[in-house]
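Inverse folding, one chain.
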């Protein structure tokens, strides 16, 4: 009995990839130009067992791919003719349609599909993924979508901070340069805080009253 328990407990547990570690984030530049036209070497250098279920657990990897392709189709259609040209959206969806039943069956998150996944289902998904025309569309989606994402999030985050002065101030560490804004997170103090910390001192020309008297001065320099 003890030997059986010992053998069972020594069997390695095959854990999945942690959600925050999945490979898509490896293809997003933190700032600047979005990655464009990644080569196969670029891709291979970014996927490993710790961040890619296709490497760690192929059954989970292919399911996640199917889920992602199917669940994002609606969003793609919503921006047809708005962000993405109709020809691109229609072509992408056409390729999905050629393997839609298989995509749904291989997607283990779709509980509405009856029947078990067969070899023909898996092969249909693999053929779609490896289709050269579909790969060209996927690359175009990566290039345009990556740039759009980078531009969008780079504008949305500071815009949100600017319109939520209290929450912005709460996130700042306590130091001399932040104490005024943290004490009174008003639009005026936000503007002053940003200008003082962004504009080079040599270009500062405008002065405002200050409560701090340093060396007999009651003026606070603020860049215009």
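Residues assigned per position:
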């Amino acid at each position: 009995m003890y030997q059986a328990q010992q053998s069972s407990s020594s069997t390695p547990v095959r854990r999945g990839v942690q959600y925050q570690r999945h490979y898509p984030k490896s293809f997003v530049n933190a700032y600047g130009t979005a990655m464009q036209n990644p080569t196969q070497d670029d891709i291979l250098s970014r996927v490993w067992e710790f961040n890619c279920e296709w490497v760690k657990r192929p059954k989970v990897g292919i399911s996640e791919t199917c889920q992602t392709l199917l669940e994002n189709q609606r969003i793609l259609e919503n921006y047809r003719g708005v962000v993405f040209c109709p020809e691109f959206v229609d072509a992408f969806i056409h390729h999905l349609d050629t393997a839609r039943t298989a995509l749904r069956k291989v997607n283990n998150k779709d509980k509405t599909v009856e029947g078990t996944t067969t070899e023909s289902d898996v092969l249909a998904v693999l053929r779609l993924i490896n289709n050269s025309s579909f790969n060209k569309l996927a690359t175009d989606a990566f290039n345009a979508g990556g740039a759009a994402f980078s531009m969008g999030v780079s504008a949305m985050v500071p815009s949100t901070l600017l319109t939520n002065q209290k929450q912005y101030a709460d996130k700042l560490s306590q130091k001399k340069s932040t104490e005024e804004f943290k004490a009174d997170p008003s639009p005026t103090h936000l503007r002053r805080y940003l200008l003082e910390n962004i504009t080079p001192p040599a270009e500062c020309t405008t002065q405002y009253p200050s409560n701090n008297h340093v060396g007999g001065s009651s003026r606070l320099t603020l860049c215009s």
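The longest strand covers residues 206-214. Residues 50 and 156 are 31 Å apart (CA to CA).
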